[in-house]
Design brief:
Layout lengths: L7 H14 L9 H6 L3 H12 L4 H18 L2 H19 L15 H13 L3 H10 L11 H11 L3 H16 L3 H4 L3 H14 L3 H13 L8
Length: 224
């Protein structure tokens, strides 16, 4: 809650207090408020320490934190490398998931694929971005990082409108499968992607109606 209220110094105090009492320590969790405070070197040290942990969750969160830190710091090549490393690690661990596990019981891969796809675009590698986003679509996961939404934008930018329309259908299908608390986090962002395709296809009136709806009901995500 302290983090969502942007009280990052207090969040760090709470994390330190937790770690003085309990094991395992919340190592990777320190990286996020430090990043938000612009203390990138300290954030990197916590994230790197988490990556070396014996705890799978800490290692995953540490790699994800490194991806986020380099993106915030504006180090594009390092950002892409860090996000790709996080994705590769998640994809390798996901091979050990049970075949019929539920979406909330499997290793998170999609969010790492999405992050890496975004980072790939920052270094002007659209083909790699498409590959990574598609890798995130291979199974349903409970995350608002909708890989089909990314593909809608990519295909629209590239003028591949048939692919964009197909991705649009999949984007809506993905969102409908999410629990309400996740689905509602990205309603406006999803509608803007939909409206963009409509406007390019000359369905102006409907497109503008959806844009107005998105403006009137903006996404509220305390985690970003």
């Amino acid at each position: 809650l302290a983090g969502e209220l942007e009280r990052y110094d207090y969040q760090l105090q709470l994390l330190d207090y937790h770690d003085s009492l309990y094991d395992p320590r919340l190592i990777a969790e320190h990286a996020w408020p430090l990043m938000q405070l612009g203390r990138y070197e300290e954030a990197r040290k916590y994230a790197e320490k988490a990556v070396e942990s014996r705890d799978d969750f800490q290692r995953s969160l540490g790699r994800n934190a490194l991806c986020a830190i380099e993106g915030e710091a504006g180090e594009r090549e390092t950002w892409f490398e860090a996000c790709l490393a996080a994705y590769d690690d998640a994809a390798a661990r996901a091979k050990n998931d049970k075949p019929f596990a539920k979406p909330d019981e499997i290793t998170s891969v999609t969010v790492h694929a999405y992050n890496a796809a975004v980072a790939a675009m920052s270094v002007l590698r659209p083909d790699e971005a498409e590959r990574l986003a598609k890798a995130g679509t291979l199974r349903i996961e409970f995350t608002p990082a909708n890989p089909w939404l990314f593909l809608v934008r990519l295909y629209t930018d590239q003028g591949r409108m048939s692919d964009a329309v197909q991705a649009l259908r999949e984007m809506q299908s993905w969102r409908r499968k999410l629990p309400p608390n996740l689905r509602d986090q990205v309603q406006a962002e999803t509608e803007v992607a939909y409206a963009t395709v409509l406007l390019i296809a000359a369905h102006t009136e409907k497109g503008l109606t959806i844009v107005d709806r998105a403006i009137a009901n903006p996404d509220r995500r305390g985690l970003t």
